[in-house]
Amino acid sequence: MGEHSTSNRLAVDQPTRGADRNRSLADQADPATDEMLLPSLSDGITLLDVEGGRGVPILQSLVLDHLLLHDGPAFWVDANGHATTTTLAQIAPSQRLLNRIHVARGFTAYQHYGAVCDLPTAVNQYIQASTADTGAVGRGGPGRDEDASPHTPALIVAPAVDAQYRADDTLGETHAKTLQARTLARLATYADGYDIPVLVTRNERNEFTEPVATVADHHLECEQTRMGPRIVGEDFETLVYPVDDGAYYQTTFAYWRQLLAARATQVGVEPTTPSPSTPTPEGVGTGVTADGETVAATADPLLDAWTATRSGGR
């Protein structure tokens, strides 16, 4: 396009603080190791607050970007459909990357808490299976964390960590707060025990979710602007992004998808074109979630809740 509309373009004389950290991938000597358009996730609990919506693509972009730079699987305790395979498949630069994401879905407070409690068992089962299968060993590449193992977790994700405890009518307020506190305590233990990031979000900011902010070691805030999402953290701030003609604009969902594809190439993961639809996985049958998503039914509804995203979940 020869011209950009004012809705997605900023004049060059606008403030560009932080733009040096957000240079184009093509202009960097080693883009896989520098801070990019997406903030890096440090060990400990990181709280991502998204203004104006659930921020599913934003959350998924952070997860995929972390997995591209670190070996090992991600274990995702889902609530309210954040682990939807539709957007994951659209934004993921490689379908193989999705095989490293294992999802448990909790539709009630007790299911969610149970999935969090079962996480060490799921991790142990994955380690046993991956170490027995030599073909499952991760492939290191430029920019990968050399100290990371392809067998141990690289990331734990718990979006809408307050959702089920807030919405469960069978729990009194005191019991709901207690169960949520136990969930947060276990997530903090996992972050410390595995020495990995734990990425969480919350549905609302109020007294009920103050413990989520209290337990978090890091805090990212995402503001939905008319020119795209803007993320602010302790050491990261998304403002504007340079393009070839010298103008500046803020990132969009499509631009993040291009970034992840370029990142994948840099770390040795061959980008693949997502298939238009996800085939029905093999299993003992299928079921429909509360969100209307068709998922595979498994023989063990508790421990087998942990599964790759392409195989659905509990």
From TrEMBL:
Lineage top rank: taxon: Archaea
Record region (Disordered): 1-33, 267-314
InterPro entries in UniProt: P-loop_NTPase
Chain intervals with Low complexity compositional bias: 280-289
Protein known as: DNA recombination and repair protein Rad51-like C-terminal domain-containing protein
Gene source species: Natrinema gari JCM 14663
